[in-house]
Amino acid sequence: MSNFTGTLLVKPNAMSNEHNRPFRLWYAVGGGIALALLTLICFRFQANSTTVALLYLVVIILVSLRSSLVPSALVAIIAYLCLDYFFTAPLFTLGMNQTLDFVAPIAYVTTAFVITRLMFRVRKSTEDQRRAEEALRRAQAEMAHITRVMTMGELAASIAHEINQPLSAIVNNGSACLRWLAGDSPNIAEAREAAQDVIREGNRAGEVITRIRGFLRKTESEKASMDINQTIRDVVILMRNEAESKGVTLQMELTNDLPAVLGDRVQLQQVILNLVMNGIEAMTSFSHQKRELRIRSRHYESDVLVAVQDSGVGIDPENLEKIFDAFYTTKSQGMGMGLAISRSIVEDHGGQLWVQQNDSAGTTFQFTLLKQP
Amino acid sequence: MSEPKPLVFIVDDDEAVRKSLGSLIRSAGLGVETFASAQQFLASPRADVLSCLVLDLKLPGLSGLDLQKRMAELDIETPIVFITGHGDIPTSVRAIKAGAVEFLTKPFRDQDLLDAIQQAIERDRNMRQQQANIAELRGRHESLTPREKEVMNLVVSGLLNKQVAAQLGISEYTVKIHRGQVMAKMQAESLADLVRISEKLVMTRPKPS
Questions:
Q1: In chain A, what residues touch B107 (CB-CB under 8 Å)?
Q2: Are B152 and B52 contained in the same domain?
Q3: What confidence score (pLDDT) does residue A99 get?
């Protein structure tokens, strides 16, 4: 938790130090060229001095919008000099002879100054906003990782069992293999079979570990083409024991010919895991006759829908939307981040996550995922 | 080998564990029958031979402890060796108090399991022996005439021949004859012996069903 707070506070500060934009000299050069062209054309067509003054003002405004104070001021001064030299009488001399000679420099410099200041503020605030968003996104990824680790902590018993089973089969098979080989008439066939089982169970334990490692990986979103049914199966394998120990039967009803979706496997595992764990907890918090959790996948127009249906206590209708808020929780030991993160993950995938009460008992959480284009 | 191979029943929901246990136990020269659930074990007919049960604590549906309780209710006296993934002390105490032979935490040493199985089979053998003895005694008791049974009951309750005669309204001599018959038929060598036999018969009287 302290790690998380640190991220929120420290990172934006660290980033605002590098707030120096490159010197926008090129805009000033561009402005100079524009002035020269304008001067040439206007002089050729003998435009009157007021028209030229206004056209110069347009150039100064454009340069100021893009550039910083010094280049804009430079352009403003050059513009004034050109105006005075080429267009206000007496021609080809510099000097304050007419009203325009006084008004133009004031208007030019004021415009350059005001516009560059305004633009500086606008740029700074959009920049700040962009950084804040960036920081938020990182914080969310961090948070998702933390909850995933916490979820795994809660699942530790189930995982330990999942690994201990193949492990004890390996030990048994190893002992059996040695025994079949011992003595005067070793039974090679039995020994071979036991040895093969050792290998198979070793692989089984390895798969469980790979799956856990996938869950614990700390990554930014990495979307790839994936089969949502496989993700559901992975979660069910990890949760099976947890469910059984709480007397809950997990049922899968998966549609086979679903299109592939574009998604981050680890994040979507996290969403399904959250929904399944919530469902199990909803059914165990009260004594219940029927504890059944159904996980379905099906077509949803041209996309894919996953539904997790429990027969638990249900949700108070007035809290139905609140449950997606961060830090809203009804559990004694919850952070209230699970559903908030799940929703942000699903929305990041272009889908939607919503909840509805079942006709009979319990609730159904469902989310959609876009099919891979 | 005059008696058939002792049989080990295995109840574990994990197929790989079940199979590996089977191989290990067969390698020790014992017979094996496996079941995936407690219900399956209860439902299938089991041969009435020397046997024991290797039982996983954590099973879907009826748990290991539930099965132990159910077996006690059904008078199935097969000794139980519990195996479990994560043994906590209260559970193991409960299991042992309810009569389990041993409580092993997976993964265990093969010798630990085989020792426990051997011990369980010994227990089954003793139990069977005792039951056979009781049956034998009961058979002898059944061979007594009603009058002889009456005499036996009074004698073992500590009455003298004279008192027995008075209570039954027969002569002391007749009592002596009956008493001799009782001692012979029950194969008792002394009065103390007869008292012991009588106690066994009373204690193991079949429950009214």
A1: 164, 167-168, 170-172
A2: no
A3: 82
